[in-house]
Amino acid sequence: MKKQKRSRQPDQGPRRRTVTVEPGVGASERYTPPKRFTYIFRPGWHKAVGAVLLIGGVSLFISCEADIGNIHAFGGHIWFLVGLLVAASSAWWFGALDQPA
Fold it and tell me: Is 12 left (phi over 0), alpha (psi -120 to 50) or beta?
């Protein structure tokens, strides 16, 4: 038993896709421009984590500056830097370091 080959019907012709091209882009039939988003999306939990880190870092820095809780006895002035680094790390969670769209 032989397999039957499917042949293209002569009235169909070649199938081509239409490509929507942005104005000003050198377009060809094979080029598809990348999708560009007009805004940067950050979910709500990213903003919550950023807020917790910002508040934690600033409160650690202020408690070290005001000598609240005798924090200097456990590492000295390194807590100034730790507080600043924790507060600065919240910038990533807020999306401040993202590339503009």
Answer: alpha
Residue with tokens 């769209």: 101
Q: What is the pTM of this model?
A: 0.56
Which residue do the tokens 């390194």 mark? Answer: 78
pLDDT (tens digit per residue) in 12-33: 545 555 545 556 555 567 777 7
The number of folded domains in the chain is 1
Is 52 a domain residue? yes
Residue 65 forms part of a structural domain: yes
**Range of 65's domain?**
44-94
pLDDT at res. 55:
95
